[in-house]
Amino acid sequence: MTISAAPAVRPAPDPKPSAPRPRRAKGGGTGGSRWVAVAFAAPLLAYLLAFYAYPLIRSIDLSIHDYNVRAFVQGNAEFVGLKNYIDVISSPLFGQAAWNTVVFVFGSLIFQYVLGLALAVFFRGNFRLSGILRALFLVPWLLPLIVSGSAWAWMLNSDNGIVNSFLQAFGIGQINWLTSPDTSMLAVIIANIWLGIPFNLVILYSGLQNISGDLYEAAALDGAGPWRQFWSITFPLLRPVSAITLLLGLVYTLKVVDIIWIMTSGGPANSTTTLAIWSYREAFGTGQPDLSPAAAVGNILIVIALIFGFIYLRMQRRQEQS
Amino acid sequence: MTARRPWWKTALGVVFTALMLFPVYWMVNVSFTKTADLRLSPPHLFPLDPTLDGYAEVLRQQLPNLGTSLLIGLGTVALTVVIAAPAAYAISLLNLRGGRTLNFVLLVAQMIPGVVMAMGFYAIYVRLGMLNSVWGLILADSTVAVPFGVLLFTAFMSGLPRELLQAARIDGANAWRTFTSVVMPLSRNSAITVALFAFLWAWSDFVFASTLARNSALKPVTLGIYSYIGNNTTQWNAIMATAVVASIPAAILLVVAQRYVAAGVTAGAVKD
Asked: How many domains does chain B divide into?
């Protein structure tokens, strides 16, 4: 969640898969019997079946039946095959939601990455207080999304928000950040960039630590300035880490619900309705849960997330092998 | 020359940090503002005339919600560690067959959108009568933390020296004994990281709370804030005061456990 966890990705930190272990000789392990290992893993296996596989099967089941509230309780919904998917894709909202998702995801990612990288480079030269300041940068990432979302919503309030009263000092008239369809997407992207900077900063900073200082010294001796050093050393050597940061951010940003829902509920006039928000609203946003189309949208979202997820996993594996 | 520490970089760093933390400062500032002053234009930049009205509201209305969130957070931590640690032990040290496949499944599991999980849980809970229950939320919240927990424990336990485990075995310890008295004590730091994140995610959860506990008598605080926004949009000082109180766990984490937090974030994505 996070989860979503990611910016708004509540970017759930994602532990690396363990590197391939050298095969040990049979019986060379600790526990002896294979069944001991299975016994230790059994709770997890049962857990995954009950609380991952089963909910997912239920969501597929929802999407291929026509569930209304009564059918829901009695469990006799009519089987409709792919009708829900066809309805959803041919709905005029589908194109808009897909486009909004693209704008939200890429708008967020580009600025999170650029700002995160700039800050990582800035913090690389250890200066007084740099450790504490870097730690403080984690704050937005640790706050509950409802907290950041409502803080931003109040800051961007049309009449009483601090952002507008700041802009007024420069002679810029009132902007209806959250209530005008022209600026609502910009508003949620700004909040989401703010949320995602810590994640990008931490990962890119730790990537920078792996670049040898000798390279910079040699470059400095050859007369390369900081700008040249960045483009000739930092950026190329950071490329694998950058790719992984962006892909992981992408997978997490695709599924963001909280921050958009809290700030705009997908409105006004669907201007901030992404696929995830659309699914959430159909299912839970109104008094009458309409779970079948919601599940269809959600399952389409899973497919998109997994495509990029697999690209991420492949890239990470390749990086570990090299 | 690392000895030369330019002061201007520190100054610039402070400015950046202040900009970044401005929304947090603003939240605190608004939480101390009098209701009558909320609509001032331009607003006061500092709480010159502070009031604790907002916090009195929190105590009056949100205390049970905070308790519920605490309960859900602790329950999620317990469930996550109890399931994740033994499984990681099996994968990393007991040569579990299919361990690598399991790792892969867990990575994929983390990519599944929360909305879809919420719908699945909703459909299941309706039948079982588990909607609006603390247990239901603990189970749902743990699905965010368990894959993370297993992967983090596995990565750490794979690095434990095998001699230690063999020594335990020679001393006659069985697999369970080795797990409880050798492996777990050594994995203390990983356990802290896992527990911290499990707690923070459960405490911050909005999607599961707003779908599976909409009509609950026991609301988590995230839902408390949300219904607050919906009901009385005038009392932003009280909303922000609740938000400040809801941020306390994050603040404590940052002060007490910053290195565990950083460890948790970088555990992903980057090799060492």
From this structure: 1
